[in-house]
Amino acid sequence: MKACILTVVHVHNDNRIFYKQLPALLEAGYQITYVVPCPAELKMDSRVELIPLPQIPRWRRFQNWGKALAAALRSGADIFHFHDPELIPVGLVLRALTRRPVIYDVHENNPQVVLRRLWIPRLLRVPAAKGMALLEWLACRFLDGIVVANPPTAERIYRFARRAVQVANYVELAHFDTPPQTPSLAQPDGPSFIYSGSLSTQRGVLDCLQAFELLNRPDARLTLVGPLDDADPSMADLPRRLPPRVRLLPPQPFANIPPLLRSSLAGLVTLHPTPNYLEIIPTKLLEYMAAAIPVIAYDLPLVRPIVKQSKCGILIEPQDVRAMAEAMAYILDHPEDAKEMGRRGREAVEEKFCWESEKRKLLALYQGLLSPRRGL
To answer: Using CA atoms, how far apart are residues 22 and 5, in angstroms rounded to an integer?
Structure first.
């Protein structure tokens, strides 16, 4: 069977799509057409037919909708799976024209995301959020399957969807167990605290910097790795404002991330308590745990039970930079305790938060949607 995976928003090596779902489908024997914005010369697995879309700014992404639809129709796929709310109209057209199963993958609470998009004029955000909610209702009513990444979104989607399944962004442990294939990015003059992920004010990057300055320890370092949020004005001049012993790494191939995490003192999970972030389990939290390092995390509803039950780190009140500095000091001064936190976090991932169980749910959805076609 042939699957067509589409996105006009995510990078080609998006963690959920590229490192989890595509390998799961290939392992199950699917042929894949991957429609994604990327360089035309990008090399992929030989089993994947890559259809590159132009890499264009956020406000012009609509120009790729027609290209994505045309590529999907040409693919001759038996099933279509798209990852962006912007592509819901494309998914509905695909369903009408091909009569083949179409899956919409909901990565986050998209109406809430729209409300905090700084690049959308303030007066348009509420109407845009209501429009997004309507689009998702149409997807739930008329598409064949909905995949959701987190429990609160699942509760909202399940009320409307014909067929929905939660496939969480849990960790593929194999990525954290294999030796690195690339040169180490470890800090040459000693381990550091690390923040890994998109860099923005609402994700707490400025909090991390303030806490690190309060810490004021010559034996401490901080590493920030990930893309700067181009919609956040505070990130525009961040590279020029970094204090000593803080380094900023650009976005890395995922293969570089596990060894970088393993060489760190602790991972920082500092999402602000905005409506959207209150509804997710941060992927970075589980990746830090898989790398067997302790976490310093803001006390959010879906973060709290994981950290408390596994005893894998220190919870602090959101945006309390003094408490974050004190937690950093504790990690520095109690290395054996920090090591035990990391060990317990790794055990929790192995027992409860590994990708293997989620992969089976995704493949079961595909099989259920395609089984009627196999009988034709």
So the answer is: 9
In this prediction, residue 376 has a pLDDT band, given cuts at 50, 70 and 90, of very low
Whole-angstrom distance, CA of residue 238 vs CA of residue 87 = 33
pLDDT, tens digit (0-9, with 9 covering 90-100), for 179-228: 654 545 655 567 899 999 999 999 999 999 999 999 999 999 999 999 99
Q: What is the pTM of this model?
A: 0.85
Which domains can be identified in the chain, with CATH numbers?
2-170+355-374 (3.40.50.2000), 175-352 (3.40.50.2000)
Q: Could you give the CA distance from residue 290 to residue 342 in angstroms, rounded to a whole number?
A: 8
Average pLDDT (332-358) is 96
* CB contact set of 60 (below 8 Å; sequence gap of 6+): none
- 48 near 31, Cβ under 8 Å? no
Read off the tokens for 358. Answer: 């989620």
DSSP codes joined into one string, 305-354: HHHHHHT-EEEE-TT-HHHHHHHHHHHHH-HHHHHHHHHHHHHHHHHH-B
Residue 129: how many CB atoms within 10 A of its CB? Answer: 19
Yes or no: say if 293 and 352 are a contact pair by the CB < 8 Å rule. Answer: no
* Mean pLDDT computed over 41-49: 91
Q: Whole-angstrom Cα distance, residue 279 to residue 228?
A: 23
Reported residue count of the chain is 376
For residue 221, which phi and psi values (nearest 5 degrees)?
Answer: -140, 160
What is the rounded CA–CA span in Å between residue 269 and residue 149?
18
* Cα distances (angstroms) measured from residue 123 to each of 62, 117, 119, 231: 21, 12, 12, 17
Q: Is 319 left (phi over 0), alpha (psi -120 to 50) or beta?
A: left
Q: At which residue do the structure tokens 């409860």 appear?
A: 352
The C-alpha atoms of residue 263 and residue 288 are separated, in whole angstroms, by 11
CB 139 within 8 A of CB 326: no
| 150: phi then psi, degrees, rounded to nearest 5 | -145, 155
**4 membership: H or E segment, kind and range:** strand 2-6
The mean pLDDT value of the chain amounts to: 92
